[in-house]
Design brief:
single chain; seven-stranded mixed beta sheet; 5 helices; 7 strands; about 25% helix
């Protein structure tokens, strides 16, 4: 398990990505259906579920079943009844197992640098987003003192823009995701508008 997805103390220090703080930038509203692609330790899943205050749904999608079991157990412990667990390979067509245009928001955090087929993951996020729905990408902007990805695996902000554009998404905004991360939000629009 890569330290970027292990949860732990890196998320509790202000200089790194902080899920509860970052989730406030995502514009999550009551009753929304959202997903965390590559849910890892579940830090963002829990932050989104708490922001929804028991309404809506948060889909935790990951390929690692042991991590999904941990998320399930922690969601039960916290009495977060709006967390749904989905095992899926996001690099495969329809790999999230979610319906077309089912969600208002998909979060991809600290995942792109770990996977081979980045285009497939962004395309899958786009498929499950409703028109007007948003894709949020949070990833490492640099390799930092042995934390996060090695330099060669970093997905730059420019590469993230290109992946989103290739999937037909338009840039909406950038937000401060921490000293060593960037945060970008893209919107799904009708095919004939931009």
């Amino acid at each position: 398990m890569h330290p970027a997805r292990s949860g732990g103390s890196m998320y509790s220090k202000g200089r790194f990505a902080h899920p509860a703080r970052n989730v406030t930038a995502l514009g999550i509203g009551m009753g929304m259906k959202v997903a965390d692609f590559g849910a890892g330790s579940g830090a963002y899943v829990f932050a989104m579920a708490e922001m929804l205050s028991g309404s809506g749904s948060v889909y935790a999608v990951d390929i690692q079943k042991d991590l999904l079991r941990r998320i399930t157990n922690e969601a039960r412990r916290r009495d977060l009844t709006n967390v749904e667990i989905l095992w899926g390979d996001l690099e495969m067509p329809r790999g999230s197992k979610l319906n077309d245009e089912a969600l208002e928001l998909v979060l991809i955090s600290n995942l792109l640098f770990q996977i081979k087929d980045k285009k497939a993951v962004v395309a899958e996020a786009t498929r499950v987003l409703r028109h007007g729905g948003r894709l949020a990408i949070i990833d490492w902007s640099e390799s930092f003192g042995g934390m996060g990805p090695v330099k060669e695996d970093i997905v730059t902000k420019e590469e993230a823009y290109a992946l989103a554009r290739a999937a037909g998404l338009v840039f909406a905004e950038e937000f401060d995701a921490g000293a060593h991360h960037y945060g970008l939000i893209f919107r799904k629009v009708a095919k004939n508008t931009e």
